[in-house]
Amino acid sequence: MDSRLLIGAMSGTSADGVDAALVRIGGTGLAMTAELVTHASAAFDAELRARIHTLRATGRVALDELARLGTDLARAYAGVTRQVLAAADLGPTDVVALAAHGQTLFHAPPLSLQWLDPAYLAWATGIDVISDFRRADLAAGGQGAPLVPYADYVVFRSTSRSRVLLNLGGIANVTWLPKSAGVRDLLAFDTGPGNCLSDWLMREHSDTGAGVDVGGALALGGSAFEDVAGYFVEDEYFRRPPPKSTDGPAMVAAFERALGDRVDAPLTDLLATAALCVARTVIEGLATCSQGEEFDLIVAGGGVHNAALIEHLAAFKPVASDAAGVPAEAREAMAFAILGAATLDREPANVIRATGALRPVVLGAITPRP
Predict the structure, then answer these.
(1) One digit per residue, pLDDT tens: the chain, 370 residues?
(2) d(Cα 43, Cα 115) in Å, to the nearest integer?
(3) In degrees to the nearest 10, what's the CA dihedral of 331, 332, 334, 339?
(4) How large is the angle between the packed helices 267-290 and 196-205, nearest 10 degrees?
């Protein structure tokens, strides 16, 4: 098959904006190749971000607001799609599909909701849209997550070194790629929280109401509560074996329980404690994957810039995915372009050892452009 261009677009559980990647795909199935052409990011405006966080925190929404939110998310996705096309000097007809993850509003398998109006997005961009990637795996008895291991295998597999791909988004997840292994040998799961804890602290406790501790600067100035971290890692989720996945509100609730009356401690100490909690659960996840085998740790996602968190992982010599040719901010968007290509080819793309599904299934629903 000749190469084709797809755009992958992703807004993560942090709900801070949309990342999009234009990807040149060659071949099909697990033999496909994927080359990043260009990528772009666009932040959600403060009002849209607040609406998403409120809905996720409360679990309550009026039907008209839910419908409006789908359209507003599609507008945000369309905007960053146009940025990518402009950067590559391309038009909508040059791209075979736009694979859009949508915004996670709720995830507690077997129930999950990634929200977006795909018809509006197809109309606004003039591109066929592939969306709703998780539902087929859920129907097959899986977690509906993580889905990126298929793409990780295509892009990052190695015959000489075992690798762990660590994504530090709102939730942290790992993909274990044993050297010279087949896709059925992969292991992937959510280790627990990523940026969701520090983002929540910044929204709730920062005088400015800012949602991000940029670079982990405030956390670096604090002292972590070791006892809180010890209590946090005893949460039931961390004792559960893979396959497993979680969501930000569940991890924030576990963190609140662990904090107890420390919730009013100085913000810097709370942020330092959040970084320690994330690191402890990531390190446990790495041990579950590797079982003592040596590996290279490749890190992507917004948390790669959090120095307080990365400092805890220094013993593993983490390397940003940029060194492997995939910018940390583009890895998940690129993954959904790959998953979208598999959808078009009717190729199953869930890794059943990662999701726990009963069998491989084709992911995603296709909405033709008008």
Answers:
(1) 689 999 999 998 888 899 999 999 999 999 999 999 999 999 999 999 999 999 998 999 999 999 999 999 999 999 999 999 999 999 999 999 999 999 999 999 999 999 999 999 999 999 999 999 999 999 999 999 999 999 999 999 999 999 999 999 999 999 999 998 899 889 999 999 999 999 999 998 877 666 789 999 999 999 999 999 999 999 999 999 999 999 999 999 999 999 999 989 999 999 999 999 999 999 999 999 999 999 999 999 989 999 999 999 999 999 999 988 899 989 999 999 999 999 999 999 999 999 999 999 999 999 999 8
(2) 17
(3) 140
(4) 170
Cα–Cα distance, 38 to 23 (Å, whole number): 7
Instruction: For the chain, give the number of residues.
Output: 370
DSSP 8-state class, residue 336: H
Cα angle vertex 174, ends 136, 204, to 5°?
90
Specify the DSSP class assigned to residue 45: P
Please state, in angstroms and as integers, the Cα–Cα distance from residue 29 to each residue in 26, 84, 178, 184, 221, following that order: 10, 25, 19, 14, 47
The answer to whether 85 and 95 have CB atoms below 8 angstroms apart is yes
Q: What is the DSSP string of 106-149?
A: EEETTEEEEE--HHHHHHHHTS-EEE--SHHHHHTTS-S---TH
What's the number of CA atoms in the CB half-sphere (13 Å) around residue 77?
36
Distance CA 338, CA 342 (A): 6
- Burial degree of 248 (CB within 10 A; 0-12, 13-18, 19+): buried
Which residues, in sequence order, are CB contacts of 311 under 8 Å at separation 6+?
A: 220
State the amino acid at position 181 in one-letter form. Answer: A
